[in-house]
């Protein structure tokens, strides 16, 4: 199958793959010896993914894709960093992917840690983990301002963090912003439902 050349075509292919996964009829495409050998010399991925490292959220499986189809960048809680942005820019500028998907999910441990850290008696996290989780704290604070009473819904915080991640990627990268402006790239924020298997599009920049 040839790689899509437009953001809309790329998203349509991903959506069809998620539907197959959702209903339990995946094709497991492009996982054969011939594909492996053909890809040894080059790659032309359908899409770039920036997602959470959670073991339950493997993009190739959720979207029923195969070898060479997705360029994937992951860390806990899809926190924007220089390394993540540079990797995404490489996929767009060098490999020509027409779509970047930021993939969040419910019951995210990194988001839960950021919410729990708000408690006055919260135990201290190891320094590097605490510094990483701090990048999610603005979403917690925004959710608290919107809902000043009662406990915070971690999944609602995850939605706020997803939108913030999309905005932060575009703010951090002139390359990505320019590609969106000229119509060659779309940046999508999507949320995966663990129990259902469904991926829901939440934010779309550069896509109809």
What does this structure look like?
- With 208 residues, the protein is α/β, with parallel strands linked by helices.
- It has one domain (7-205): 3-Layer(aba) Sandwich (Beta-carbonic Anhydrase, Chain A).
- The protein contains nine helices and five strands.
- The chain has helices spanning 7-22, 33-38, 59-62, 82-93, 109-116, 127-133, 137-146, 154-172, 174-181; strands spanning 47-52, 70-75, 99-105, 186-192, 199-205.
- A five-stranded mixed beta sheet has the order 2-1-3-4-5, sandwiched between helices.
- The radius of gyration is 18 Å and the shape is globular.
- It starts with 6 loop residues before the first helix and ends with a strand.
Cα shape: globular
Summarize the biggest pleated sheet: 5 strands, mixed
Q: Compute the gyration radius: what is it?
A: 18 Å
Query: Based on DSSP secondary structure assignment, what is the total number of beta strands?
Result: 5
CATH fold field value: Beta-carbonic Anhydrase, Chain A
Order of helices and strands: HHEHEHEHHHHHEE
Distance between the termini: 24 Å
What's the name of the CATH homologous superfamily? Carbonic anhydrase
Structural class per helix/strand content? alpha/beta
């Amino acid at each position: 199958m040839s790689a899509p050349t437009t953001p809309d075509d790329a998203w349509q292919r991903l959506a069809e793959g998620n539907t197959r996964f959702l209903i339990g009829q995946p094709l497991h495409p492009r996982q054969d010896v011939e594909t492996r050998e053909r890809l040894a010399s080059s790659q032309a991925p359908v899409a770039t993914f920036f997602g959470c490292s959670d073991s339950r959220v493997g993009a190739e499986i959720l979207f029923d894709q195969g070898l060479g189809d997705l360029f994937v960048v992951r860390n806990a809680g899809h926190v924007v960093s220089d390394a993540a942005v540079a990797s995404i820019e490489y996929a767009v500028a060098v490999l020509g992917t027409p779509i970047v998907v930021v993939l969040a999910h419910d019951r995210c441990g990194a988001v839960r840690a950021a919410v729990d850290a708000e408690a006055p008696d919260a135990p201290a996290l190891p320094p590097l983990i605490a510094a990483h989780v701090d990048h999610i704290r603005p979403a917690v604070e925004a959710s608290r301002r919107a809902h000043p009473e009662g406990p915070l819904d971690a999944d609602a915080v995850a939605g706020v963090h997803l939108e913030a991640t999309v905005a932060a990627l575009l703010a951090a990268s002139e390359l990505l912003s320019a590609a969106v402006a000229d119509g060659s790239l779309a940046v999508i924020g999507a949320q995966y439902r663990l129990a259902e298997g469904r991926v829901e599009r939440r934010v779309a920049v550069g896509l109809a």
